[in-house]
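Complex record, four chains
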Amino acid sequence: MTVRAAVAGASGYAGGELLRLLAVHPEVEIGTLTAHSNAGERLGALQPHLAPLAERVLEPTTAETLAGHDVVFLALPHGQSAAVAEQLGPEVLVVDMGADFRLQDAADWEKFYGSAHAGTWPYGLPELPGARAALAGSKRIAVPGCYPTAVSLALFPAYAAGLVEDEAVIVAASGTSGAGKAPKAHLLGSEVMGSMSPYGVGGAHRHTPEMIQNLSAAAGARVTVSFTPTLAPMPRGILATCSAKAKPGATAESVRAAYEKAFAEEPFVHLLPEGRWPATASVYGSNAVHVQAAHDPASGRVIVISAIDNLTKGTAGGAVQSMNIALGLPEELGLPTIGVAP
Amino acid sequence: MTVRAAVAGASGYAGGELLRLLAVHPEVEIGTLTAHSNAGERLGALQPHLAPLAERVLEPTTAETLAGHDVVFLALPHGQSAAVAEQLGPEVLVVDMGADFRLQDAADWEKFYGSAHAGTWPYGLPELPGARAALAGSKRIAVPGCYPTAVSLALFPAYAAGLVEDEAVIVAASGTSGAGKAPKAHLLGSEVMGSMSPYGVGGAHRHTPEMIQNLSAAAGARVTVSFTPTLAPMPRGILATCSAKAKPGATAESVRAAYEKAFAEEPFVHLLPEGRWPATASVYGSNAVHVQAAHDPASGRVIVISAIDNLTKGTAGGAVQSMNIALGLPEELGLPTIGVAP
Amino acid sequence: MTVRAAVAGASGYAGGELLRLLAVHPEVEIGTLTAHSNAGERLGALQPHLAPLAERVLEPTTAETLAGHDVVFLALPHGQSAAVAEQLGPEVLVVDMGADFRLQDAADWEKFYGSAHAGTWPYGLPELPGARAALAGSKRIAVPGCYPTAVSLALFPAYAAGLVEDEAVIVAASGTSGAGKAPKAHLLGSEVMGSMSPYGVGGAHRHTPEMIQNLSAAAGARVTVSFTPTLAPMPRGILATCSAKAKPGATAESVRAAYEKAFAEEPFVHLLPEGRWPATASVYGSNAVHVQAAHDPASGRVIVISAIDNLTKGTAGGAVQSMNIALGLPEELGLPTIGVAP
Amino acid sequence: MTVRAAVAGASGYAGGELLRLLAVHPEVEIGTLTAHSNAGERLGALQPHLAPLAERVLEPTTAETLAGHDVVFLALPHGQSAAVAEQLGPEVLVVDMGADFRLQDAADWEKFYGSAHAGTWPYGLPELPGARAALAGSKRIAVPGCYPTAVSLALFPAYAAGLVEDEAVIVAASGTSGAGKAPKAHLLGSEVMGSMSPYGVGGAHRHTPEMIQNLSAAAGARVTVSFTPTLAPMPRGILATCSAKAKPGATAESVRAAYEKAFAEEPFVHLLPEGRWPATASVYGSNAVHVQAAHDPASGRVIVISAIDNLTKGTAGGAVQSMNIALGLPEELGLPTIGVAP
């Protein structure tokens, strides 16, 4: 089976990463590439690393240019996917890398995004309980946000196993590509190199309700999340430091056992040997998730740390992984599991 | 008054930063510089940025070489200060930049450092309640650790004002100079650039008991700390993201008021305007502390974030600030309050 | 003597660096600060590192707001200084940190900047032969470009001593702050971290005629320059690798002697001991210039490498140094000679 | 055909990069992995990014452990390959990633490496004239140095076409992984971040004679090289800025034509469209070479700039490419041509 794939939003970071992966996917043929303000330009001028695709000309994002593909990836700004998606037929697999269809609660959407809720699609984080069944054969996929990917994979086993209380505290560091390619002064290299800085403090980040949704589902109860994202001086990567109060009876052994069980069969999740902790450099450019968990008796907390590449597993790699499942292809097809290090 | 100052451990990062500051301090004359394995070498070969002192020759660290100074700074590995200090007379001001005399509890020292406790000296964090009185006229000063400096200044106002519960969760990112100048593979530029990684997870970091000591004193009760340090891809800086459950009745206004009150007269602490958050780049090379606090009703937590330069306010600048107080000099003398940015 | 100084263009990188220096200059009182699109804002929102000046409000750049100062610094985009300067009286010291008055040849200006030439002012690179005499007492100063500062100081001694042929090859690496604070996609942190890239290849960079002007003056003959600037993944610093064919008779000894003679009395130029080479980290945030020269018999070339901080010695520090001379103050007043390292 | 490959020196950067590539090579099965001081350890503790190989145990580097493979890669310190290679039978393909067999001139070897010359093997830079024929079917391959790869590919077309004089000036910036994984103080992250610094100035770098060898072969005459390597604050990548005086008659058109002809059929070399220049970020983790050339009439020089990943095309990727040729496999098999960007 060769599937023909279009990418809407090929000039940005998510679209560029997706093309890096699709270009070597053995069952994918890259079709139309579209852009908004860059329509008409050659891809090589915008994504110089994609040399084999350098001569491709970007087309405008319309129903016509996106027609005739088996799969359409939408790498568009939040709130723009719904209008495009409804013009694509039900037989086309639509993979939305934006936020439009991630949330189940319309009120959450309206509070954090300020527009009408477009709906909810099967959620493209296959490692969550029940996710693969929902993705198999689906024609619509909502790719998770990068922070929710890192945080949900870090904490869902502890919640699913009933090991922690329902108040999670999360501090995550992200590389700058998570903020996109639109030029802004605070994202200049001069500003970010040599600097760590927080943003969206106090639950203001739009990824917060998505984390709560995932962790609450795992816990079977409403989980409260204190989420502080920080911008780190690196292009890629998320390190999520997550913790919650241990429930009575939780031990180092029961924590370890829960994570071993949760990830035993996962092709992309690497639970590190005890005593070793993840580093974002180890997953640079790969679809892997590195995780470690510990129980700290002195503070009474379970601490779980995960590392992902925000553009690969956190966005484009997760999208391809979910596409593979939806199409009935081997889940790992075309996806790197080894990072580019050092 | 001109004081003659010796620096034991002039070849390392703390010693180098101290010399950068002392070289422009209007009341200090730099005397003997000592080192261990680098004794006999010229400073310029080891600290090329200290060009005006390049021809200085490092001497061995002995009672003889350190004699004849008004102030002796000890920038030695942990556990080595006590033996040197006891050879220096009671009339000499000894400023220990190591950990030896920071902790009040001998059991804590033994647990985290594995040797006999040498004692407790006046603690060189002048912004803490009562600290200036203990430092004034003192002949012995224990300079705080870099993480405890950032964390204690972030959280003590909330504890002193009774606004938060006694369980603090802290995730801090540090530049690599905090790990010192001894060559280790995991600190190579190839390893740290582009990477965030945790270490000492689960309360294992030696700075944990020092934080607990400071916060418990402010709270008037034993505070529990979950502390996770992470290594960030930058040479300097600490960003400490601290939070604790708000006590009933705490509000955004009461939190703001507590911090305004705590820092109103502080020359080095800059409480940012509401809504703006610290960045380590803003304090690069300065003795300033930038702080912001917020109350998040959704998670029920008070979140406080501070940024310091680990080598300046976190080590050598804090040492000079405390020296100024001990000697009766203006507290800000010779200390930069503006960072080198961008 | 206390001089009252205004800064036009206080919201950019050059203006910010200037304020960092002026804030601790013992003879300067900071007066009006102006900006263009940021007029009306508080400085703290734009330059968070300048905490002691955070409450200062930026005014528009007009003859009225700039009136009543002893010194006016112009940190404006190229081509805008002349119009402002002509409104300032002849009794005011005007220090232009832009390019408008650097070039002697009007044709060069028109070719590289595309507008009418405004004139030529005394050139603010005091280390060049004859420069101090022209600056002393002057009321107008043209601050050199950052690259010409690094390159001219590296090569003028070899040309002045007649040691090299008249074709210089220069490859320089610059930190990103040299490109300014206006947001552009190719200057985003995501783009520049981990990347070296050239620009303005083939003599297209506007600093080329300024280098030729300086080196030709030293040589007493027209010097040809091949100049390739590259963007390096760091916020600050220039490393200029310069070489030229050795003239017959030039030796390692004669090269060394020429540089020792040229810089023997220079307060800011540090000729490194033989065998050691400059690093930009050693001059971070300082007004120092580190230089080394060598003669390579195998290739027949003299190679000279210099390191500066592009914002300090390369812009704002050089401006203050020249101001000191013009006003009859000690040349080193208020200027750091020790970099912030590591 | 599946070939069984051993890697001697699997704990270092070159060995790690090789394993990243071999792990996804469709015709390679990874056999024995060896190390020196790390023998006995699991690979996961030393190369955490190689998670799928984490449980592999490193064996000592001996004839016995390396026996029974079709291909043996040697990623050993310079001077150690010859002793190992002579114990491997003539039927085994030995790919030496060290310097031992690169140079044709024994005197050059002795001058730069200080030991007896071991011999000369077919040179693994397939893009050079005649190289593929020498590699096809060969059982011994000398993989080029990283700098000679970048520089030779940049300049050989100009020399082969007779467009430039025989004195080349080269300034190259390299990421820190080129200096290896052995911990040294000057390679610490604290030292290299934010800093550009030269080393081996004046022709002292061991890669100089290798460049001269390659360029002289292309020119048909002895070429002189002035080579200055600099260390850049990034883990990977080489940007080589190369130039030489244009011969009379050389024009922008003849330069462009020479490069188009040289690289028209090359699968890994991407000659950029006119006016665009390479960036190391575009080839991060890929086997691609990005090149641009220009003629600068003002200085009379031809300037050519190339970008490679020093560990991929500059070491391990070049090794696999040459292995593919030697074994009669498709040259591009298993090698990425798209970098990980941003």
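Note: The mean pLDDT of chain A is 97.
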